[in-house]
Write a structure and sequence with these properties.
Blueprint lengths: L1 H20 L4 E4 L10 H10 L5 E3 L12 H16 L6 E6 L1 H12 L5 E7 L20 H9 L19 H7 L3 H4 L8 H8 L4 E6 L16 E2 L5 E2 L5 H4 L5 H6 L3 E5 L12 H8 L5
Parallel strand pairs: 1-2, 1-3, 3-4, 4-5, 5-8
Antiparallel strand pairs: 6-7
């Protein structure tokens, strides 16, 4: 009788251990002007849904430091991600919010032999930003029309938000001056295009999350790789030049069925990282 109880207890412990081991580590990158603590709620959602999951909200470039050049941030986040992903042969998931999604998008391009399984971009300006938002209160009210004057020069490209500012009325200046977004999205030719594409295509799933009531990401479809034309009409992802030419692998991922687009109305920008409905509808299933 005693041996039977011991065997049953051992089996339960083994099953419990196996269940927690089945979940891949989750690495979280925060957004602009915030830090790792801002991602506490979504961390709790993950741990409640998948007990035993190793969840790490990277504590780098918090607050005002998030305005530092994105290539500098990418390098430091890359080193932190490598430490975590190298601890497992099964890979890890990358969940990145707002500006963090642009950072993660870049590091997946420049990080060879990474083993990131799902890249989840949560309300991120993946195709750029063009519009006044509460996050940019430090600038004049004429921001939308005049931001290019700040951003499209050598000094401006040292400011993170300028590195994904995409003015559809000054596209020639964007393509000439952009040293970040135009490069990672293949809109501007460079010597590493092929290698970056190969690196990015190592992911198994790309999850794009956004919604029409975001209030910060402009246009909100940028979170789904859509963006404005020169007359500010939104051009959806599949009609974007970088998709049609498949320059960084987005079309390839889509055709193989590995792009999930999740539209969540009624959610304001910062609530995307603390909404249980967003987590259950758009994120939970991709973190196994």
């Amino acid at each position: 009788m005693k041996s039977s109880v011991v065997r049953s207890l051992g089996l339960c412990l083994l099953l419990s251990w196996s269940s927690s081991e089945a979940y891949k580590p989750v690495i979280i990158v925060h957004g602009l002007l915030e830090g790792a603590t801002a991602m506490r709620t979504i961390t709790e959602f993950i741990q409640e849904a998948h007990p035993g999951t190793e969840v790490t909200a990277l504590d780098l470039f918090g607050g005002g430091s998030s305005l530092k050049p994105l290539w500098t941030q990418v390098e430091h986040f890359r080193l932190a991600v490598e430490v975590i992903q190298n601890r497992t042969e099964d890979g890890a998931h990358l969940l990145c919010f707002s500006q963090g999604g642009v950072i993660c998008r870049a590091l997946l391009s420049v990080m060879p032999k990474h083993n990131i399984h799902s890249f989840i971009a949560l309300s991120s300006p993946l195709a750029g930003q063009y519009g006044d938002t509460d996050y940019l209160k430090m600038f004049p009210k004429t921001l939308k029309e005049n931001m290019y004057k700040l951003c499209y020069n050598k000094l401006g490209q040292e400011l993170s938000i300028c590195q994904y500012w995409n003015d559809p009325h000054h596209r020639h200046k964007y393509l000439k001056r952009s040293n970040f977004l135009a490069l990672i999205n293949g809109e501007k030719e460079h010597n590493d295009t092929k290698v970056w594409r190969e690196n990015f295509l190592r992911i198994k799933k790309l999850v794009l999350i956004g919604g029409p009531d975001d209030g910060v990401i402009t246009p909100w479809q940028s979170s789904h790789f859509g963006f404005f034309s020169s007359n500010e009409t939104v051009v959806e992802m599949r009609n974007q030049q970088f998709y049609m030419t498949d320059v960084f692998g987005l079309k390839t991922l889509d055709l193989r069925g590995d792009v999930s687009v999740c539209k969540q109305p009624g959610v304001r920008h910062t609530n995307f990282r603390r909404s249980v409905s967003v987590f259950n509808n758009c994120i939970r299933d991709w973190l196994t």
